[in-house]
Each structure stands twice: as C-alpha cells, then as structure tokens.
From TrEMBL:
This is D-alanyl-D-alanine carboxypeptidase. Residues 51-362 form the Beta-lactamase-related domain. Residues 1-26 form the signal peptide. It comes from Streptomyces spectabilis. SUPFAM superfamilies: beta-lactamase/transpeptidase-like. Its EC number is 3.4.16.4. It comes from the Bacteria. It is an enzyme of class 3 (hydrolase). GO terms for molecular function: serine-type D-Ala-D-Ala carboxypeptidase activity. Keywords: Carboxypeptidase, Hydrolase, Protease, Signal.
C-alpha cells in the first residue's frame, strides 16, 4: 500500500525533538505551572515525540505542550490538537450502554447470546456487565493480529476490519478463563460485542449513538467516532509506531490508519478540552443516574481498580482519580478527574518507544492533582 512509505525515520532521530520549543499557555495572574511544563518536557526527553496537556481547576485552565508535532520539523504541538484516544473510547461506549440500561432497553444481566445469537460459543453464560468490566473471559483479538513491531502490521493499515470478523478470530480460541465472572482479563473483543449490542438495541451504529447522546449534548466539537475514515481532521500531532525492517527498527508515521482495527473499544478521536469536559459531566451525574454511576465505579473483581468502562487510581496525596487511559498504537492518552470534579487533567502523547512513559506520566498526574 502506498501509505506504508509515507514517513520513515530512525528511532534515534526522535532524540532531536529534545531541542524543540515548549509552550505553556496561561493567563496573567494564574499560579506558577512551571512544574507541569517541566514534567511534560521530561516525558519528551525520555520517551515521546510530542505531548499536550490541559489542567482545569479552581485557578482556571492551563494548557501546555512539548516536543514537536512532526518528526523532521520544528512545528510545535498544537495545544488544541486532536489525537486518537484509544481505550478512553470504552468510557464513552460504557456510558451509552448504561444509558440504555436506564431506559430499560438493556439490562446488565442480559446475556450476550440473547442479543447476538451464536456470536460467542458460551454467550448464554456471559452478561453485559461482564463485557463492560472485563470479566467475560472472551479472548482479546488484538493479541491475535500482527502488531508493531512486526512489518506485516503495515500491510493492513488501511484495511477495514469488520467487528464480526475480529470477534470470530478471537472466539476461535478458548476462553481466557472459565466460568465467566470468575476473573479479570482485559478484552477489546468484549467492547466490540457491546458495540454490536448497542446497534441491536437502538437500530443505529454505536458511533451514531455516542454522537447523539454524548458528543452533541456536551458540545464536544473536537470529538468524533471516525468509523473507517483514516485521517484526523483539524490540527493534530503526527503519531508513530516502531517497525522492524531489513535496515533495522524504524519509526513509521501511522497518523493515517483505518481505525476499524481499534473499533468500539478504541477508535475515537478527541482533544484535551473535550475529554476534560466529558469526564466532568460523567462524574457530575449529567450523563447517568446516580445508581448507575455507582455501578460504573464498582470493580468487577476486588483487586482491580476497574469498573464498567471506568478506572481509578490514588495519588500520593490521597486523592482518588476517576477516568481512563488509552493506547491507540501511535497515540497514548490519560484523562482523569477528582470525584468532586474540582480538578480535571488530560494528557496525550505521541510516543517514540525509547522508553516506557508510564512512571513519568504518573509523576506528572501526581503533580497536577496534588500541588
């Protein structure tokens, strides 16, 4: 395919972004946020091409960027840029699922086999709740496909992957565990099934339901469920994946890709502002009644901090954060809010795979919520 040859750069070339300009946008009279900017710069120095972040709290809104928008250039990352949010999509999809529960059109104890006969071999034993909280035991299809750094991944970058095909590939394998509900194993396949159930319950694709129920009411103008459309519209940083080629490992520009590979569990595009607005609205009870929001915050298994499409973590200062994080191959994102909605933070990276950014991101989130 032509797009395989769009941009190839060596992994070590990413080090060049360390000299790139950084930007912090804040109004006069706002508190010093230089520590947040230093945290963003540190992530770029260790493991990313570009980064953008928005913090909302009682002192107003702070936005910062670091690195470059595209390797080989000095273009700054757009502060309002769009990015693929990966598994934060699951929080949107779970919200729509629970709205249908509130309307009596679905029940959490409904069986997959009732809605999608024959789709899953043991569908008569798996519930909607178990799909939402990853306790279904349905194998994860993404573990069964060529993924970076294998070169074969590039052959499919523009391919449309029907959800039904991905589900069939997954369930051709034995369950991750049995019986359903007895353990936890993250499964993107479970969310493909939820997307299909939403379509059966409403007569409309899940993306249209997300748009109708969440995106339009909250005026999330930078957010979309692109379906099979491969491009990110509007200002955005470029994203890259490492690929093993005959000449060595290279970063390949994967900004353009068919997001059907990510599907109902990861296809969506958004901005830092939109995700902060969405998380605040969700925790504020504007999208779900209280008893279903409580269900969303109830873990599927006791030792996991994951409920119905929502996860949580605690900061060093004892503040509990609710939200989600996402990995869309060439983009990584984190979006969290405090339970009282007084502070929201969303961060997105275009990783360069020189290192794992998780510890540095956790430290930056800690600073954003605790200082």
């Amino acid at each position: 395919m032509k797009c395989v040859h769009r941009v190839l750069v060596t992994v070590t070339t990413a080090v060049a972004v360390l000299a790139a300009p950084t930007a912090a946008l804040a109004g006069a009279g706002e508190p010093d946020r230089s520590g947040l900017q230093r945290g963003l710069d540190a992530i770029i120095a260790e493991s990313a091409v570009g980064a953008l972040m928005e913090v909302r709290d009682e002192d107003g809104v702070w936005r910062g960027t670091s690195g470059v928008s595209e390797l080989g250039t000095t273009r700054a990352v757009p502060a309002h840029g769009r990015f693929r949010m990966g598994s934060i999509t699951k929080t949107f999809l779970a919200t729509v699922t629970l709205q249908l529960v509130a309307e009596g059109r679905l029940r959490l104890h409904d069986k997959v086999g009732t809605w999608l006969p024959g789709a899953v071999p043991n569908g008569h034993r798996i519930t909607v709740r178990q799909l939402l909280n990853h306790t279904s035991g349905v194998p994860d299809y993404r573990r069964l496909l060529p993924m970076p750094p294998t070169p074969e991944f590039l052959d499919n970058r523009l391919r449309t992957w029907p959800a039904a095909e991905l589900v069939r590939r997954a369930v051709a394998n034995p369950p991750t565990f049995e019986p359903p509900g007895s353990d936890y194993a993250y499964s993107n396949t479970g969310y493909l099934l939820l997307g299909q159930i939403i379509e059966k319950a409403t007569g409309r694709p899940y993306g249209k339901e997300i748009e109708r129920r969440i995106i339009r009411p909250l005026r999330l103008h930078g957010t979309s469920a692109p379906g099979t459309s491969p491009r990110i519209r509007g200002p955005h940083p470029h994203g890259y994946v490492p690929i093993e080629l005959a000449t060595g490992r290279r970063l390949v520009d994967l900004t353009v890709m068919n997001p059907s590979l990510l599907g109902a569990g990861g296809e969506m595009i958004s901005t830092t502002s939109d995700l902060n607005r969405f998380m605040a609205a969700l925790l504020d009870g504007r999208l779900l009644p209280g008893h279903l929001l409580d269900e969303m915050r109830t873990p599927g298994v006791k030792e996991k901090q994951y409920g119905l499409g929502l996860r949580w973590q605690d900061t060093s200062c004892g503040v509990r954060l609710y939200g989600n994080d996402g990995d869309a191959l060439a983009y990584q994102a984190w979006s969290f809010t405090t339970e009282d909605r007084r502070r929201q933070v969303t961060l997105a990276l275009t990783p360069d795979f020189r290192g794992d950014p998780d510890d540095a991101v956790d430290a930056l989130l800690d600073k954003a919520f605790c200082d």
